[in-house]
Amino acid sequence: MAQSDMDATNMVSLPALLRRNAVNFGSSAAFREKEFGIWQTWSWSKALNEAESLALGLIELGIQPGDFVAILGRNRPDLYISMVAIQMAGATPVPQYQDSVAEEMEYVLAHCGAKFVVAGDQEQVDKVLEIQSNLPDFEQMIYLDGRGLRKYDHSKLHSFASVMENGKNSGQNSKSTLKDRENALTYDSTCVMLYTSGTTGRPKGVVLSNANIIETAKTTCEFDDLKKTDEIVAYLPMAWIGDFIFSVGQAMWSGFCVNCPESADTLSTDLREIGPTYYFAPPRVFEMQLTDVMIRMEDSGRFKKWLFDYFMEHARHVGGNILDGKSVGFGSRIKYFLGDLAVYGPLKNTLGLSKVRVGYTAGEAIGPEIFEFYRSLGINLKQLYGQTEASVYITQQPDGEVRGDTVGVPTPGVEVRISDNGEVYYKSPGTFVEYYKNPESTAETKDPEGWVATGDAGFFEEDTGHLRIIDRAKDVSKMSDGSMFAPKYVENKLKFYPNILESVVFGAGKDRCVAFINIDLSAVGNWAERNNIAYSSYQELAGHPKVLETIQSHVEEVNASVAKDKMLAGCQVHRFLVLHKELDADDGELTRTRKVRRKIIAEKFEDLINALYDGSSSIYTETEVTYEDGRKGKISATLQIKDATTNNLADIAAQ
Fold it and tell me: Spelled out in words, what is the top-level CATH class assigned to the domain 477-654?
């Protein structure tokens, strides 16, 4: 394809990009979805035809320019196509987290005044119907999967297929209206509105323009040489900016194929079948994959376990250097080649990552040990730093300049500066327009010159120019002796261990740090089964003496590692307890993107924190929990509090 065809001069909206792709890549795969075990394919031409039909159908239903349309459901081609169709009709898509409870959804739909909803299935339809009396702007709902909906009141409920059919049969007036609305789209028109995760309060609606999304997509596709031949698997929440920029923005710009798995349960199999060349996952996904690998190796035979440990030890020393094209001895290369045949290759194939040429992680800091594990296998995993307000990208790591402790250099076109108090600021073509209906927060976050406060603390390394993020600026503080307190740094090290699912470290203004630990039930449960240890619940296993002993060894290993960092040595964990329940988004302890709501946790478990600091050896507690069916209940437990060995720099130097 000629460079002129990729020129963004006339590509001022997602519909314009879709039309260009239908012309240039017509029969090539735009989307795939696995249904009933079989991959179904949408070509770019088919995607355009469906988008036009749906847009016309929406116009027939009465959609108006400026309306907001909520998108609810798992990753599906029809929902991605609907986002383009909504913009064609002059409205704005507002994707939602599919696992949000009705109450969470009510706030967002009411805040944006969503008049239309596109829902994936009965579960999503039911959520909207439950709260519709509190949604004065709500008018119509369109559903994809009609199972279970036959006897519902269809006065405001329409099947996706029927709306498209009405669109195909619409008259000339609707077609003229569609053409006029699409032609009215400009670079400044709103492309999408995405809500923040709400870590510290109510989610905010981030308004992103066509210019934000398209310029970001263009620059980053060029940065990593993303092409029409690339493949991506779309499995992350559609409400998250990462999925929107990868599965919509970059896909529309470069023309690569977006593959939607059949379900979360089949994701591993679907990954292996597709073999994505471009892959993104937040740290939690990589942590879970690593945990699964370690569990499987513990269950393997003695020779297989020895072979894995032997070659992985070698990979840790040379794998990253080979990946970066650095000088590695001939003997080491031969040994790595043999390791690839015996261990690395089969392992990458099991993970579905054999063909990945560009991989990214972001959203939270990833533990350096986890990061290096994947790179040692020969997977080109890199880090980027970004946020919703930046259309994702602020910094990213160029090939050959990848490290586990930095997030790279500013993305082309992005300016980054560090304020006097250490907070990171940026200015870029991807900078959001505003927070919807919230001019005060907009002014607090973005100054008149376009500089945006990230809320993160960091610094640029003098020798490399790479940015290092320490923690959230609000979480970085001082301990009572004046030493720096950065909890996320320690938490990420703890989560490297397969037995630890989540950790929350406290210590601001205190003389020492303490921690809550969540065990990983699958990893620890597997260990219990191998050792014939019976248990009936998460709570019982979390309090088992041998589990506490194992977690204590992990904490003390992390302390030894933290002590080596002069700036953060004061963050060693002196005391800890293993929580009697998993931290849960339904209980308000995590966001829907699994970010810790530190303030809420501190308030909710204040009695546990006090016990960690007052010298208690145990503490009885009762906690309200939310069950899967929405019912509330209480669980109680007596938790054991453990002391952990800490180190000083002199001890570490002597070892």
Answer: alpha beta
